């Protein structure tokens, strides 16, 4: 039996670890869909391994987060187009209605109003940032292909994921999607809207879903927006009752002092 070491071989799925820092730019080279699926499989295995050894304590499945995020993306796009007087019954928008029926359940009903409120506030504070998104994010302002729309949204998500994520950044991704939807309809491509919803799911899966899961799922946005529990404890209630009784007793003594009451 030979004891010689085996010859060096390149790993089959090895790829460069260095990424180009192109802010909001389109990717220079498109990765084949089959390769994306291989990397997605590796990502799924890594997530399972991380949960097994206790790196993350969240119990919210990332698949649910992605599905709920796509549902809210469809709703956000509808609201954005209605506010811009662009919503109509064209074929692309009819396909968008089917995207809104994606699974989400009560989480979407509870979370979406808050997400929409924050997104509208961001659009009000920075109108120049969330309008004409295609012109700002690419060399050509015309979104001529579905690939261009996907590239812009995933590019924004990739840049957001490189730094410390916050809930404000997550909501800003939806504001960007709303701006892209308005650009698509304005340029005569309402059929791109369904692709935009699917691109949001891909962006969440690759760059944002793990962070959302680690921060309590989409319901974590409610904890971020709303103040803490204002319910009065038992001790607080007893204290308020004692203060009210003391006030009534003081008024009673005061009125009796001035002869307002007659006692029998």
TrEMBL record:
Annotated localization: Membrane
Transmembrane stretches, start-end: 234-258
Domain of life of the source: Eukaryota
GO BP, one annotated term: extrinsic apoptotic signaling pathway in absence of ligand
Residue stretches making up the Bcl-2 Bcl-2 homology region 1-3 domain: 115-218
Pfam families reported in the protein's UniProt record: Bcl-2
Keyword terms: Apoptosis, Membrane, Transmembrane, Transmembrane helix
Main localization of the protein described in the UniProt heading: membrane
Keyword Phosphoprotein (UniProt): no
PROSITE patterns to which the protein is assigned, alphabetical: BCL2_FAMILY
Gene Ontology molecular function, alphabetical: BH domain binding
GO CC annotation: mitochondrial outer membrane
Protein's membrane topology: Single-pass membrane protein
Cited SMART domains: BCL (SM00337)
Assigned protein family: Belongs to the Bcl-2 family.
Protein name: Bcl-2 Bcl-2 homology region 1-3 domain-containing protein
């Amino acid at each position: 039996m030979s004891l010689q070491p085996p010859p060096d071989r390149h790993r089959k799925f090895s790829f460069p670890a260095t990424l180009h820092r192109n802010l909001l730019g389109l990717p220079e080279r498109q990765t084949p869909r089959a390769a994306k699926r291989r990397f997605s499989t590796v990502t799924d295995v890594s997530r399972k391994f991380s949960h097994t050894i206790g790196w993350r304590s969240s119990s919210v499945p990332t698949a649910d987060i992605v599905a709920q995020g796509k549902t809210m993306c469809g709703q956000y796009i509808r609201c954005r187009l209605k506010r811009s007087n662009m919503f109509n019954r064209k074929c692309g928008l009819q396909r968008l209605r089917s995207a809104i029926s994606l699974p989400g359940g009560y989480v979407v009903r509870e979370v979406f109003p808050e997400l929409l409120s924050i997104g509208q506030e961001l659009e009000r504070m920075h109108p120049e940032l969330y309008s004409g998104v295609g012109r700002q994010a690419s060399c050509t302002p015309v979104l001529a292909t579905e690939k261009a729309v996907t590239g812009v949204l995933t590019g924004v998500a990739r840049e957001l994921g490189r730094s410390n994520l916050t809930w404000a950044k997550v909501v800003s991704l939806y504001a960007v999607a709303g701006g892209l939807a308005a650009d698509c309809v304005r340029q005569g491509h309402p059929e791109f809207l369904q692709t935009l919803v699917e691109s949001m799911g891909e962006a969440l899966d690759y760059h944002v879903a793990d962070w959302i899961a680690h921060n309590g799922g989409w319901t974590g946005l409610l904890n971020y927006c709303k103040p803490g529990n204002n319910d009065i404890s038992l001790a607080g209630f007893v204290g308020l009752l004692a203060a009210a009784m003391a006030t009534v007793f003081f008024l009673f003594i005061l009125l009796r002092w001035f002869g307002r009451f007659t006692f029998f």
